[in-house]
Amino acid sequence: MVHTPHRTGGRPSGQARAPKAEAGAVGAADGALDSAGRVAKLLARAGVASRREVERLIEAGRVALNGQVLTTPAVKVGPDDILTVDGAVVTEAEPARLFRYHKPIDLVTSHKDPQGRPTVFEHLPPGLPRLISVGRLDINSEGLLLLTNDGGLARALEMPSTGVVRRYRARARGRVTQARLDTLKQGVTVEGVHYGAIEATLDKAKEGPQGANLWITVVLAEGKNREVRRVLETLGLKVNRLIRLSYGPFALGTLLPGEVEEVGPRVIREQLAEHIAPQNLPQGDRPLWKKPAKVAAGPRRGAVELDRGGKPAGGRPGKGQNRPRNAASAGEAPPKKEYKAGWAKPKPKPKAVIAKAAGPKRRSGAGNRPPRADGGPKRG
User: Fold this and answer.
1) 244, pLDDT greater than 90
2) Per-residue confidence at 350, pLDDT binned at 50, 70, 90?
């Protein structure tokens, strides 16, 4: 089984450090490592596949350089070389892009899961480029997950040496004081793994029949596997909900679970330029991807069809274009009210009562004017 070390560059436990190469072999070794990574990096950066998948493509004979099928990834690719995968030319990689994603629970942060569980990348909306995650959230955690097409940017934001701050909100069962939480600022070692300084603030506690339900804000800069859960367990707390609120300068904000929003190119240049190669910096100010429009449930009753300008199609709405207010305006007889058997029908009102309620009817014309009080002739 091929071991994949943590992205920070650690070695598998128990594995000895590789011996240093002799002085005459250093250049060859460094060149082999450099060239071995460049093909995979180029294809991964172009969105073809991950570096590990690229190695499988090469082993399967599906990658060619200038018409010759590659049998090893230890090949340098020059600016004028033509690289193809399955006969299709690989185009130049697009600039770095970054997306904010509100990860729901019950999703695995992976492209494929050996256990067949649903993954984050299977539930992304259509139209997105091939993306990788910046760090991970376990299946029971939720909140902000950054996605990018730039592997170098992802590694830079994940490395503890970069010092990118992550903020979480944790709900835990148990009892603890702020004084005990402050001890985490000195770091803690759990099962041989050392975790750096963590700032934990007790927000509120809700008493219950089985103890207290605590809300704790946790701020850290490492982001090791299940770090928040394991560290709080040393204080006797059982985390039952974990939400990532922010990652570096990017916050969860008002994103709903499952929603994605692209970070604008200008923000990337301002906040992340030191972590991105100059040739990969995006240009412009507006994101390239827009959220898919929500599917409407259907036109409302009486709604008017509008054109692209937002005006009624065909000019002003005429008769029949809007739903009539009543049946009489549509030229139809009003429906006759039916009564169930055994019900008492209301008695019709006398005509005199109806006329009195309506008031005297005004008539137009000179001959209908009332006579003058002095008995004089009517004005013609």
Assistant:
1) yes
2) low
Distance CA 27, CA 7 (A): 25
Check if 113 is active-site.
no
Is residue 168 in a domain? yes
Question: Based on the number of CB atoms within 10 Å of its own CB, is 74 exposed (0-12), middle (13-18) or buried (19 or more)?
Answer: middle
Q: Is the pTM of this model over 0.70?
A: no
Based on the domain organization, do 134 and 255 belong to the same domain? Answer: yes
Tell me how far apart the alpha carbons of residues 218 and 35 are, in angstroms, rounded to a whole number: 42
Beta strands in the chain (DSSP E): 63-65, 68-69, 83-85, 88-89, 98-103, 132-134, 141-148, 166-173, 188-190, 193-195, 199-208, 211-220, 238-247, 250-251, 260-262
Which residue has better confidence, 148 or 16? Answer: 148
Q: 181 and 125 in one domain?
A: yes
pLDDT above 90: residue 247? yes
Is 200 inside a domain boundary?
Answer: yes
| 103 and 236, same domain (yes or no) | yes
Q: Is 58 helix (H, G, I), strand (E, B) or coil?
A: helix
Question: What is the pLDDT confidence band of residue 145, given thresholds at 50, 70 and 90?
Answer: very high
Dihedral sign of CA atoms 312, 315, 316, 317 in order? negative
Residue from 113, 138, 285, 374 carrying the catalytic annotation = 138
